[in-house]
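pipeline/complex-builder :: batch 7 item 3
reading input block
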Amino acid sequence: MERNVRSLFAIETDIDVGDVEAIVGGSLFGAFQANVILHIGDLEALRLLGATVGVPTLVGGAGMLFVYGLLLAIPFLAFVSGSINAFVTRVIMLSRNSTLLQKVLVPLLNVSALGVTLFALGQIYGLLVGSVFFGVLVQLWLAFIGGPSALPAFGLVSLFAWMTYGGMMGLVYGIAMEQ
Amino acid sequence: MSGSNTTASGTRFAAIDLSIDRRAVLVGAVLGILVNMSAMIVPVLNYVGGGVIAGFVAAYMVGGPRGWLHGVLAGAVAGIAGGTIVALTGGLLGLYTEPPTLLQELFGIVSPIFNGMGILAPLYIGLGIAAFILVDSIIGSVAGGLLRTLVDAAFGR
């Protein structure tokens, strides 16, 4: 059984149990921060997330944000695990070509090259999640089940919350991978 | 600290490793405080509690019985920090109800009792909060240490 379980993570893919632990921790931390932002700035977005499972309350929405945060971390991990070295190399090359970028990026890269790269990548991923998942898929699902429209809650605050989710997930994952 | 020792009868035994991983304690304690202080804004966090998070994270990072020790230590640090915050804000405002002290539902039921304690009220309230968080962290650290042991066994780590 042990070999079977290991083969799921370590042999057939580049992902091992440490990666899974890091991404679970990172995604929960990111979802926690997104929850704080949405509770301060966009309660309607939370109620709509709860409405996707028939619980249009703040507690339901906050709980679903953690669940969706965990689920949406899977594609990020799958993408990052195969291409992170290329991204880090690209960021290092970028910092060599521009003096301004060199001043900004080199001190950060010295602290944590993976953390900085994955933080930036995570923010892009968060923007994508906010636009495609929340702006389109949640909207379609709510229309399908006859729930309220999600479009009124699709604004800068919810996008910022999803970007924070992605950025924090990437940062925690990157730092954990460097340890 | 780890290694093997020999008793008078010649039986060899492994000494318990009690070295402290400061990073695990710090990460657990900071997360615990963050969760506690955000619970007023994010009510769903009250279902878990900062003490449980502090204990769980620190214990999981280290694993096993040594992880339990780390979980309780993280809970103690989070408890002292949380207790100090509540004592300070409560003392400054003269109130020990939740909104001013930022630690919602942590001690709501007993808070009126502390209000009549006189000059030592901040000390009692601080110790009370620390005790609540510490007890929570014991639950979290048992769960975290156990889960890490299971994961290690399942994946042969």
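note: The two ends of chain B are 22 Å apart (CA to CA).
queue -> next item
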